Amino acid sequence: MKNDTLNVLRPAAAILVCAALMLTLSLGLRQSLGIFMQPMTKDIAITVSEFTFAIAIQNIAWGVAQPFTGALAVRVGFRPIMTAGAVFYILGLTFLATATGTFGVTIGAGLLIGISLACCGSAIANSVASRMVPASLRSTVLGLVSGGSSLGAMIAAPIGQSLQTSIDWRAGVFGFLALSLVMLPAAWIAGRVDKVKLPPPAPGQPDERSARAMTVTALTHVPFIVMSVAYFVCGMQLVFVSTHLPSYLDICGMDPMLSAQALGMIGAFNVLSGVFFGWAGNRWSKQALLGILYMSRSLVLAWFFSAPPTPTTTLAFAGMMGFLWLGVSPLIAGSVAEMFGLRWQAMIQGIAFSSHQIGSFVGAFGGGLVYDVFGSYELAWRFGVGLGLAAGAAQLAFAVMRPPPTALAR
């Protein structure tokens, strides 16, 4: 069995590694932008809510564009989509590094990076990985690719913080720009997936050839709707943490390097999260696992923000959040592949992801707005915890009432 698995993965190795590398840089750099918020707002005289509005625009652009880039990949192939995404990322960081006001920050960190993520983020990378392996290995491989994608934050956050501390925030962003150049060859090599022939749909899966027909099918499929609504809360919680945790720690008087260490810790435990939940998704209900994950994450948020942070509690929180963070990715991607097959996976996952990104907008901009109005994040984190518990309970209850089919997509 072990040799059979190796024989399956060996021809796919270069594509899978490069898809994971492209994903780790795109998500790791984006996840670490929060370390620049405090020095940037002071240097170019913008408010916290203006910075977080740019991050909110990024999430909305990503969510809105994702179904379209997923559908376009079916028409023109993954390689041109992913390569264009790498170029957009480089342009976005260039705008951000040279920004002198709200416009440059919004265009760079917001619009351009948002469009880039729709071209080379989770939905596209997971679709590439799904096409390279049989259904029996799919969830595990999706977990490995998602877990590997977490290494970017472990690399990017310390580099950006070190350059920012020793020089200034612009140097930190230029450091991110240098790292983003690696996305170009990674996207090109991962684009070899365009030569892979898709298997026929599994029994019970729709075999639609129209993007519109598949969209209607997805939006009238109750399990998909429940999963997408819960995904909204997931996006709200995660982007609130990645955007506002550095600012929160700064307000509490913590060492600036602690923010980078915490983001790096999240990235490290994201690796375990992706691998574990990818493995678990091959054995238990993906929908039930999502519900348990959302509820557990909400309890961890409540524990951390209910008391003043210390270096120890911050790193413990980061580790726990990291483990409950990226496991969502292989579970969502695997669920979409099971429900609808592989041909339109990127587009349909993009539809679900649009809900996630609306939540991300609320988490980024709403958190900044609450802070500007009340001078505290308390109302924001309490709101996120309450919604997270409700979404997790609903997802878990529905999984128990409506167990998934036993047959996986072949």
List the topology elements.
Blueprint: H1 2-9, H2 13-31, H3 37-43, H4 48-76, H5 78-97, H6 102-120, H7 122-131, H8 135-148, H9 151-166, H10 169-180, H11 183-190, H12 211-219, H13 222-251, H14 256-281, H15 286-305, H16 311-323, H17 328-340, H18 345-374, H19 378-401
Helix pairs in contact: 2-6, 2-7, 2-8, 2-9, 2-11, 4-5, 4-6, 4-18, 5-6, 5-10, 5-11, 6-7, 7-8, 7-17, 7-18, 8-14, 8-17, 9-10, 9-14, 13-14, 13-15, 13-18, 13-19, 14-16, 14-17, 15-16, 15-17, 15-19, 18-19
The CATH architecture can be given as Up-down Bundle
Number of continuous helical runs: 19
Q: What is the makeup of the main sheet? A: none
Backbone shape? globular
- Residue-averaged pLDDT, rounded? 79
**Overall number of strands:** 0
Multimeric status of the protein: single chain
CATH class: Mainly Alpha
Low-confidence stretches: 1-6, 405-410
Task: Give a structural overview.
The protein is mainly alpha-helical and about 400 residues long. It has one domain: Growth Hormone, Chain: A. Helices cover about 80% and strands about 0% of the residues. It contains 19 helices and no strands. Helix 2 packs across helix 8 and helix 18 packs antiparallel against helix 19. It is globular.
